[in-house]
């Protein structure tokens, strides 16, 4: 589980491959996030879609009524997502940004990370936790989706146990729940994943 994992050059990937072919492509709002928003009666406010990639989650959140900012390391991903949002008539602030050296200087009501944290180098995880905690208002939420330790595919992102998530995030967040689920995308079977709901203390 702690083996070193390799990732593509994200910018090159978005320059060469169609986003619809990517394993994480999901045109709908992630069903776990959808359920959490309903349970928590979250309908408006500011949202950050972190590592937005194809931008589907950012657009779906805007469609739901959130004021959405969406960032990604890849400028090409950001430009493609911006075009898609414009075509669909949704207003999302798409920005090229590295979460490990972020230029964001405001706080959000909620942050959604579906697949960014689990591709970061292990030595950067605590910096990520500190940075993301600084981007969320007190009482705001971090919704994190990452691969689960139960996923057995050889390749792909890092995997986590609920205990590891609790240990990494617990100092800065109240970890409300960690559920075993799947990562909705183009792979078959869908990879096993964790959906974590955390409240900023
Ligand atoms: C597995 S994809 C998930 C994309 C998107 N969240 C989704 O659900 O469709 C991971 C994304 O994280 C982005 N990424 C990787 N490292 C990043 C970083 N340091 N800062 C911001 N984005 C990053 C990649 O470019 C890629 O688009």
The small-molecule ligands in this entry are: S-adenosylmethionine
pLDDT averaged over residues: 97
Tell me the strand percentage band: 25-35%
**Main beta-sheet strand count, sense and barrel state:** 8 strands, mixed
Number of helices: 6
Number of domains: 1
Shape summary: globular
Rg, Cα atoms, Å: 16 Å
Name of the CATH class: Alpha Beta
- Spans with pLDDT under 50 lasting ≥5 residues? none
Structural class: alpha/beta
- For CATH, the homologous superfamily is named as Vaccinia Virus protein VP39
CATH architecture: 3-Layer(aba) Sandwich
| Sequence of secondary-structure elements | HHEHEHEEHEEHEE
Helix content: 25-40%
* End-to-end gap: 30 Å
Number of strands: 8
What's the SSE blueprint?
Blueprint: H1 10-16, H2 31-39, E1 46-50, H3 56-63, E2 67-72, H4 75-88, E3 92-96, E4 108-114, H5 125-134, E5 136-148, E6 159-160, H6 162-169, E7 173-182, E8 192-200
Parallel strand pairs: 1-2, 1-4, 2-3, 4-5, 5-6
Antiparallel strand pairs: 5-8, 7-8
Bound molecules: S-adenosylmethionine.
Report what the structure shows.
With 201 residues, the protein is α/β, with parallel strands linked by helices. The protein has one domain (10-14, 28-200): Rossmann fold. It has six helices and eight strands, in the order H-H-E-H-E-H-E-E-H-E-E-H-E-E. It has helices spanning 10-16, 31-39, 56-63, 75-88, 125-134, 162-169, and strands at 46-50, 67-72, 92-96, 108-114, 136-148, 159-160, 173-182, 192-200. Strands 1, 2, 3, 4, 5, 6, 7 and 8 form an eight-stranded mixed β-sheet that branches. The structure holds S-adenosylmethionine (SAM). S-adenosylmethionine (SAM) is lined by residues 10, 24, 51-54, 56-57, 71-74, 77, 98-100, 114-116, 119.
């Amino acid at each position: 589980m702690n083996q070193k994992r390799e990732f593509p050059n994200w910018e090159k990937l978005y320059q060469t491959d169609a986003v619809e072919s990517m394993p994480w492509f999901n045109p709908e709002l992630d069903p776990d996030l959808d359920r959490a928003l309903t349970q928590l009666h979250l309908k408006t406010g500011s949202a950050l879609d972190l590592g937005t990639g194809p931008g589907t989650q950012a657009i779906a959140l805007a469609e739901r009524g959130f004021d959405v900012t969406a960032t990604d390391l890849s400028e090409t991903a950001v430009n493609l997502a911006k075009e898609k949002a414009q075509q669909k008539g949704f207003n999302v602030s798409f920005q090229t940004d590295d979460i490990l050296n972020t230029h964001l200087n405001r706080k959000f009501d909620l942050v959604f990370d579906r697949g960014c944290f689990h591709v970061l180098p292990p030595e950067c995880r605590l910096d990520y936790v500190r940075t993301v905690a600084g981007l969320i208002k007190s009482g705001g939420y971090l919704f994190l989706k990452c691969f689960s330790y139960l996923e057995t595919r050889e390749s792909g992102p890092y995997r986590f146990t609920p205990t590891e998530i609790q240990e990494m995030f617990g100092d800065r967040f109240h970890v409300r729940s960690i559920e075993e689920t799947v990562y909705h995308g183009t792979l078959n079977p869908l990879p096993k994943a964790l959906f974590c709901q955390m409240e900023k203390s």
